Amino acid sequence: MAKGQTFQFHIQVEAGDLWRFSMYHANKGYLGIFNVLFTLASLYLLVTKWTSSTMAYRLLLLVCVLMFTVWQPGLLFLKAMKQAKNQRLKAPMDMTFTKEGFVVAQGEESMKVTWDQIGRAVGIPGEYILYMGRMRAYLLPDRVMGEEKAKFGEFLRETLPGERLKRV
Known about the structure:
Layout: E1 7-11, H1 15-26, H2 29-48, H3 55-84, H4 87-90, E2 93-97, E3 101-106, E4 109-114, E5 120-124, E6 127-131, E7 137-141, H5 142-145, H6 149-159, E8 165-166
Parallel strand pairs: 5-8
Antiparallel strand pairs: 1-2, 2-3, 3-4, 5-6, 6-7
């Protein structure tokens, strides 16, 4: 990384960004494995027991198949749309990243964050997530980073220790 290299991003969080973030949390780890296995088992039973089961049993299995494939993503998207209308999230943020940390400016407010305050950085399809704790994170969508995404990922790998990076 060149000395003094900085990255500046103007971020307007959209419902899709929040939805990807929510889907990541709803389907990571053992919960995601359970969701897939539950859906596959329900689909298997629906197909193999179709002719020998009652209509109520078929409907129950159909609900089970659709639960994590249609309803959960749909409900998370509705929630993300509602969150995106929140005035705090609606206001654009300017983020400037340097070797020392980054500055987040939103309206008249600004806050400096040092890299030791970042618990971890996670790359998911469509965005990077910078966690400050369990309840606070910054989303950096691909559409905002554009062609600088690869360089920014390299910057994160050089700035943060490896144990605080996941898929970056």
